[in-house]
Amino acid sequence: MLSQSELSSIVKGDPVDHFLLIKKCELRLTKSSKEFLSLELGDKSASYASSLWDDIPGFKSIKNSLAVGDIVRIAGSMDEYQGNPQIKIESIRLSKQSDDVSPKDFLPKSLRDLNLMKKEFTDRMERVNNIELKTLMGNIFSDERFEKYTLVPAGKMWHHGYISGLIEHTLEIIGICDLMCDIHPEINRDLLVCGAMLHDFGKIEELSYEPVFEYTEKGKLLGHIVISAMIVNEEINRISDFPENLKNNLLHLILSHQGKLEYASPVVPKTLEAITLYQADELSAKVNAYKNVIDNEIKPGSNWTRFISLAGTDIHSHGIKNSVDIKNNKTLFD
Amino acid sequence: MLSQSELSSIVKGDPVDHFLLIKKCELRLTKSSKEFLSLELGDKSASYASSLWDDIPGFKSIKNSLAVGDIVRIAGSMDEYQGNPQIKIESIRLSKQSDDVSPKDFLPKSLRDLNLMKKEFTDRMERVNNIELKTLMGNIFSDERFEKYTLVPAGKMWHHGYISGLIEHTLEIIGICDLMCDIHPEINRDLLVCGAMLHDFGKIEELSYEPVFEYTEKGKLLGHIVISAMIVNEEINRISDFPENLKNNLLHLILSHQGKLEYASPVVPKTLEAITLYQADELSAKVNAYKNVIDNEIKPGSNWTRFISLAGTDIHSHGIKNSVDIKNNKTLFD
Amino acid sequence: MLSQSELSSIVKGDPVDHFLLIKKCELRLTKSSKEFLSLELGDKSASYASSLWDDIPGFKSIKNSLAVGDIVRIAGSMDEYQGNPQIKIESIRLSKQSDDVSPKDFLPKSLRDLNLMKKEFTDRMERVNNIELKTLMGNIFSDERFEKYTLVPAGKMWHHGYISGLIEHTLEIIGICDLMCDIHPEINRDLLVCGAMLHDFGKIEELSYEPVFEYTEKGKLLGHIVISAMIVNEEINRISDFPENLKNNLLHLILSHQGKLEYASPVVPKTLEAITLYQADELSAKVNAYKNVIDNEIKPGSNWTRFISLAGTDIHSHGIKNSVDIKNNKTLFD
Amino acid sequence: MLSQSELSSIVKGDPVDHFLLIKKCELRLTKSSKEFLSLELGDKSASYASSLWDDIPGFKSIKNSLAVGDIVRIAGSMDEYQGNPQIKIESIRLSKQSDDVSPKDFLPKSLRDLNLMKKEFTDRMERVNNIELKTLMGNIFSDERFEKYTLVPAGKMWHHGYISGLIEHTLEIIGICDLMCDIHPEINRDLLVCGAMLHDFGKIEELSYEPVFEYTEKGKLLGHIVISAMIVNEEINRISDFPENLKNNLLHLILSHQGKLEYASPVVPKTLEAITLYQADELSAKVNAYKNVIDNEIKPGSNWTRFISLAGTDIHSHGIKNSVDIKNNKTLFD
Amino acid sequence: MLSQSELSSIVKGDPVDHFLLIKKCELRLTKSSKEFLSLELGDKSASYASSLWDDIPGFKSIKNSLAVGDIVRIAGSMDEYQGNPQIKIESIRLSKQSDDVSPKDFLPKSLRDLNLMKKEFTDRMERVNNIELKTLMGNIFSDERFEKYTLVPAGKMWHHGYISGLIEHTLEIIGICDLMCDIHPEINRDLLVCGAMLHDFGKIEELSYEPVFEYTEKGKLLGHIVISAMIVNEEINRISDFPENLKNNLLHLILSHQGKLEYASPVVPKTLEAITLYQADELSAKVNAYKNVIDNEIKPGSNWTRFISLAGTDIHSHGIKNSVDIKNNKTLFD
Amino acid sequence: MLSQSELSSIVKGDPVDHFLLIKKCELRLTKSSKEFLSLELGDKSASYASSLWDDIPGFKSIKNSLAVGDIVRIAGSMDEYQGNPQIKIESIRLSKQSDDVSPKDFLPKSLRDLNLMKKEFTDRMERVNNIELKTLMGNIFSDERFEKYTLVPAGKMWHHGYISGLIEHTLEIIGICDLMCDIHPEINRDLLVCGAMLHDFGKIEELSYEPVFEYTEKGKLLGHIVISAMIVNEEINRISDFPENLKNNLLHLILSHQGKLEYASPVVPKTLEAITLYQADELSAKVNAYKNVIDNEIKPGSNWTRFISLAGTDIHSHGIKNSVDIKNNKTLFD
């Protein structure tokens, strides 16, 4: 297990003595035609550029073998080049078995406790009443798939773009959906909650996240919406007498959950559950995205981010403190 | 107080003996040049066309005085013309003081109990901790304004388009916002909840709802967003030392709550609270709208509505029943 | 087999003595409260309104049993009401077994010979070289499915909206695709042609066409693109060792063939075959659509159609005759 | 005539001994205030940056005279700077008459044989039956104009952006149009084919391609569509009794061939020929564009291009080989 | 010359004794199969429906000969049907030579004095300094063309849609352009003013206005922008040594004057004069359009029009009176 | 008062001995880890990059204190780096009281005489006839606010982006509006002119311009449209008996003046005055923007700017000279 200070906390001049993940790696020539490696090195808190010069011990042996996804131990210091932080390398070595480090240790990760999230998810699954849906959920979230499902990020960037981001995001949506069912008894709660659990399920095949987050070939050619629908279709076909109406409505929830054709949903929401799921997804995603942007894109001394094109605006952190909160965390409907 | 069967429950051939509201009224000529009144008559459940012929007793005295908003007592029967229901009038008289009926009795109304909603709203207002915001809320929701606020619909059509629709809608949003604050402690709860309470406040001047729902001249020229902002601005100016930062952020919540310039917000959401309010508003509005459309636009024997242009689709009622619900109305985060 | 003059050739005053399909059927009341049936009657050439009055022999026995999809024998004459043609019924009876007529006889139909089209399709399937694809095609186009496939229209309206429209349309696309492969050897011909054959295959479940063209519930909730992809996915899974790369690329062709997200494709074309298929589909569809509109929407004495909203314009028939054609029907590349 | 290895085949470290075209040329200062020329040098296969330092023999005489469009003979080697290839110059001289090289030798060029393409074009022109159109074609494609027409590229980039690109593109469109005429006898073949021949004709005045591809002032102010229409209008006016109807329809084909107002067509397609030409143009252009992007933008070791904004996606080369092709290059309709 | 009260001033019950223009004319059958003519009759102030029954004297002789564009003398009275005014005909006869009426008398017409507008236009033409442009203007505005130019409307509807609407509109634009030249001496005044004079010139071939406003076949296939450009191009070619630069810039003004590709300009404004002309055209057109809509679409008792889709809103007449105006009403041309 | 040559007139090699404004200032490290200040220095004519090295006298004392908005006296020369001009600093000192220079001297400024513009504005204000509007104008344009109003730019870039840009822009609009009132007596002149004066008034709080142009926090959260409306609302509330109708119409002019929702107006123009103001604003803004772009973005030897994204095109300076202008240059205000 990795235990070292976070890279983002190291400032110019500080020593660096860290295991770091290779995120980019390219062999180049200087103007005077000497070889060097242009690297990007990072842990889950930050990633910085670095150059590995040919006078570093072991350069020859390492220059052709080093690859994206390798973990290296770096000694050196934090430097700066043209206003951007950069790591000055004094020595480098590849990690060994005995170092007990793994690429996963270097990826950004949900701040919520994973076991707690797993328990919340399986508990909620238990509370599904409809027999066919409960059976289906059990089959789909088999051990192996559930493992992947609880690790995959919800995306490469924008919202919940970190390990276990998808389950964190899904739990938020379920919470919102349950609240909407409390308000509107016309909504079919089981159908909606199962749709929420499955809506982004295809991301386990659309995204790879080790050693770095990347779209798979299948993901780029088919997209996670259709992958989800094809898996759910297969699993439903294995259950005898699964009602046709229920099948079509569950698949409709998955297919329509991005809400608009131009957001890549092949059908728009046509049922009460479908519109609820789409809007709950939007609410969870946008709030998380704004929160991340505020965390990551505000420079010291400012309270505005740069222009964020996905939001169509720069985003503001007003800094107005929350008043002491006298037991507010019950919802209005308790 | 009005007590009679709902108009929507009367079928062809049934007698009609009802107080009804005049919703349209026009004096016309038949082909043979006889005068008649072309009327639309309704209660809160339905509105139907009717013709008042010149051989009805009292036609002469009534033909020039009858006006939109009047209440009349009709005796006659339910008929049909070219496939549409129509009321056949045998006698008509204007309502009198002693009938104890008022136009409000004939408008569609929230199904939730108004006193309970008022209590939920004022209770939640009590739980605002920030002193300046609490003072401001108290001043704005003075008795007279609060009265109007609790009656106004959220719109003419689409979502929450009935008496007390705005407060019902606002309470839903507050519930969603409180849930999001439970998940994300970074959100300023007081600011967000006050923004939610005020976001559509200007509708009390934008819409008139007696005797029928209509946009006011001011509403059409300025819009409820700017009306809200101008009132809040005035009220804040009356409070000495109201923090400038808090003022700008509260106004920003109101101005940006429709989320996009093309939806008539003059600024887009630039803060965490603003994006939360916009998405919570969307969630509440869209779910309510779909529910209403399913209630009102599905004909017997079908389970699809006509094409609904605001939704960009026809909408489906799948009819899959909710399973027996074993105590699910706690949210995931209790 | 039906043999009678086409309804579209009957003019005002002519007698009508025809088997006709009931396309709409509604029981209504006249102003004087007498019952009548409001009908739409048609054959494959035209459809007209008609009223069945209560003084027609047999009215009582027929009024509650007549339904959409029934075939009736009508005697009467061609009439007109408010400028629109209308059938005046003098007698009516339901068709009998011995009449040897079926709803299919009354639906618009491709003008091309169906057996010839079937042969062209299966011949072309034979010419697929890739073993896995050839196996897959054979499995998918099983006898039963092929039967449906050769009857289904390509849509309810706009282009190829008639019986056997889909196979006619698909053959055009295959012709265009083969030409593009002749020009560009970089295109994988087998992949492209199989993609063309399968691209709209899901329409056999999206559309019903007996007795009238209609979208199915499944069709409206899932759409033919995803239905196609799910069937092809299932069939591929039945073939052992079907190459993953080939599978993803074939599914990509189906998913991306409408070319743009806003046209309901969940992914845009990302390969050479995908862009070719999309553009070939567009070419075939648009030319057919313009041809149909010119055929159906130009009134005598004019050479312009009304404004056609799917085309965004009114459409013109210039009437410039083709010169005598001296053996031009070889393409440039023969 | 130029005979030397293609620049794109030279790798880092290889000697360079080539005639190359100057594509950009700028006099600059180093940090230490020494002058150097910043150049872009290329042949038809590739273009690379290069710096001409002041210690190269002849620098003084050359530094103020060298200009875009000049051909120089370079001796040196292939180098690299910051990951990009760059030519290291050891000596340079301007080309001489006796070198027998011309700028045209350095521009990208259609891979099809030009004489064959000319023959195909004139043969097809011969097969036009309509007398007026045949006369018009003969007049427009006079020797001088035809010469230009057969050299001009179809654009600066995206599709057919190389010498003789326009005629190659036009021949493809004619092939597609003839196929569509075979399928649909309602299309006026002569009108459509002449429209295809003329649709981009104005590019001979919109684009200059010697020594480099560039838009002309006239091209930028008027656009090739209107230039085409004005030339065709002038030429038609020279033919007495050219039918007005035919004139308007031919001009309409030219004006509407980009299919949508937002693509710079001042009218949308309103005839069967116009919609066919637009869709055939799209098919030819898009397939060529994807092919070029795959050729030029896929880096070794990858099978995806960068994000191509004109396509709205990154593009994939799947690498699935064509099966042995058993005589498929007849179209379905032979 | 026509001298009678305006049709719009006749109210229900008043006698009608007017020459009126036939705007629509269709032979129909009543339910009882009697023939009648369904007409639209109007003068320049209004148009109303009317039915000509078979018991009107002369019905037989007139029923097959009456045509759109004919002028008839009607005696009868103003009536109403289903809330809309309608003319009840008692007798009808075709107009005769001696009646001295012409279709032009029945078309809406500019309220400004035509001779004054002609004088303003030719005076302004005189003030063009540039020799080539002055010659060109003289040639283009030959007597015959100028006659047409001064009669043609600027459109069928929306703005300046009446006889002499184009010259009225053009004079407004010239006034605005001259003001902008006063402010910005960088603008080439002659170029801009000539561009303004010519910008919609092609409408003399795009629109026909006798006996009713209609688009011509040429107008629909080519559009007035390209027609203008082709005429100006021809006329410039007749002037020897007309500067190429000036030609391209003048044509650019015509081609770009609708400002955006989606408004049918094939190029967008790229020069100072082009942007000025586009914005001046918009200003003149939009203000005139709003004025007309307010005049024609506000019903008594209201101060709002219906929803006007070209404006995207309903339009308001506030009725706030102008204060006494102390001598501001000199135009720029005084 | 500053008196020195304009920075834009200094060419490479010339000495620099100027007071200049610090527009950007950042402390950085060289590759060899030496500190330097990366600066942007400018006057109102131009801004250039510069590096302040650690061997310049006083570097130590200045490096941490220098800030954006400071004025410094620079001695050095004009240099160039990678093709861009750059100032080589030999000595630097902060400006002193006795230098009598202020940041305002270094900002771009309207070329029109400010006192003349003030007089034009107040004279026009005097000519308002409506009593309530005249009172309101007097109150709003109090001395202090008027001072700010006459200095603020109309924007950060694009049009009138310089000191006193707003008043220059407003006067142009007033001129155009008065002309439109001359043409259309239906327009309420007082209302329109007051709307023009106030339309961008909120920019005095939205923009700060000393020492550099910047949006304020309030400006970013509320926008100048709503700020304008809130101020005008407050001032109207101070005037007793200000007519409600007039108030709503004046506020409507401000709110709708950007013409479309997507341009951030919360309502679209619904009155004759509103559409006039919007189009007059567009005309003034676009012409000024094109003029500025032509002034600033055309490099020597070219007559085209780069692609200007706000215009959606590159812009052309044709260079065709104005003919001698015979007395057209009186403005409307003469």
C-alpha Rg of chain A (nearest Å): 23 Å
Shape of chain A: elongated
Largest interface: A-B, 68 and 68 residues
Helix content of chain A: 25-40%
SS content category of chain A: alpha+beta
Q: How would you name the oligomeric state of the polypeptide chains in this document?
A: homohexamer
**Largest sheet data of chain A:** 5 strands, mixed, barrel
Q: What strand line-up does the widest sheet of chain A have?
A: 1-2-3-5-4
How many strands of chain A? Answer: 9
Write the layout of secondary structure elements.
The structure is a homohexamer of 334-residue chains.
Chain A: E1 15-29, E2 35-42, E3 47-52, H1 59-63, E4 71-81, E5 84-94, H2 114-126, H3 131-140, H4 143-149, H5 165-183, H6 189-198, H7 203-206, E6 207-208, E7 214-215, H8 217-237, H9 244-256, H10 272-297, E8 304-308, E9 313-316
Parallel strand pairs in A: 3-5
Antiparallel strand pairs in A: 1-2, 1-4, 2-3, 4-5, 6-7, 8-9
Helix pairs in contact in A: 5-6, 5-10, 6-9, 6-10, 8-9, 9-10
